[in-house]
Amino acid sequence: MHVFSPHVPPAQAHFVTGAICVLCGNSLPAEHLRYSHVCPNHPRIPDEGILDIQYDYQAAAPFFPGVERDCQSLETDTWRGLWRYRALFPLAWNAPVPSLTVGLTPLYDAAKLAKAFELHQVLVKDDSRQPTASFKDRASCLAVALAVESKAPVVATASTGNAAAALAGMAAAMNVPCAIFVPESAPAAKIAQLLAFGARVFLVQGNYDQAFGLCMEACRRYGWYNRNTGYNPNMAEGKKSAAFEIAEQMNWDVPDAVFVGVGDGCIMAGLHKGFADLVRMGRTRRIPRLYGVQAEGSDFLWQAQEEKRFTPEALLAKAPIVAHTVADSIAAGLPRDRVKAMRAVRESRGCFLRVSDQAILAAIPELAQGCGVFAEPAGAASLAGLKVALEKKLIAPKERICLVATGSGLKDAIAVSHAPQRFVPIFVPPDSAAFAIIESVHTEAK
Ligand SMILES: *Cc1c(COP(=O)(O)O)cnc(C)c1O
Ligand SMILES: [Zn+2]
Question: Is 409's C-beta closer than 6 angstroms to any atom of ligand 1?
């Protein structure tokens, strides 16, 4: 990978030109983003007018990594990890950012998986290695930097899991007070991680939607910075950095297809934005087909695809479902970024795929043994999705595919014990009689 040294543009500068509403196409000036995250044209559904941030790509290009740049090493805090791409982030050039190293996670060539599936190449983007152990750090680091830039007194989000942990960790790193709204059903281990980071955790005696509502209202009342997924348009901007990294790690090429687990759809939206940005910047020539993998019990977007609800209107008219899956990070009854996520798979000519909980659980040890990456259920869902795509003949043998491992298996280590493959330890006596058993392993290995 190239390490580059940017010619720093004037202090304060960023290359945001404005934003476009994903519902009505309304174009808003950059100033609008300073006091609102949404389009004002939708008073009946005020939080659904989600924006897509626009840049002056021509002006940003010289400050963005690329083949033609001189490759010098640059090790300052500001430029570590994904901040090398900050020319295409909605953040002032000299704004402080969290000290934790986010992004530039490994892209592994999983030759064993490629062989097993008779594919040209299988790459694994390992985001289990982020500071708080999930992909969500890509968005939360930007959220906290933007909160500090806007002098917000508190950063807040509603979430049950990784988004909250990421926000709490980044807030701790920048010494910003953090408020988290979680439904009381949230797993104890995830709440413990939030508390360890020093976040104020409000256990809402209700569901995720109600926690989301309370967080929205608290942010309105007190001027807190709102990180809520599918509302704050900057979150997809942070997440697009994964697409930049994949392309740069492939020496400015892209895979033929990318697979990722989908809950709210914000990662999918971010990947699409990132690959589209690269084409606009002339760094790459095409957008890979994007495959969104949903769990059977949390398949809102897959259902919407079957019902041909492709337009924003049709998606907004679809009622929430009741979501239930072992892959808690992709459980979403009403995917908050459904409009952008649907657009991402349609425009890239991929699709949504649906996998059972059993297939997701089976994929955890398959991925772990296939390339050494231990993912949580939502992270291994990408591999389960690849298998469905192969059955449906959506992938040709000559293609190069990329699986995004979005979260660490250590987040939910017990899940793998429910996998259909049986993993049992070998019991041995504590003395030399054990070697009658140990020897057999040695013989098998030879
Ligand atoms: C959040 C999350 C996802 C899904 O992202 P969405 O933007 O909600 O679709 C997948 N895997 C992990 C580990 C996550 O934390
Ligand atoms: Zn609008």
Answer: no
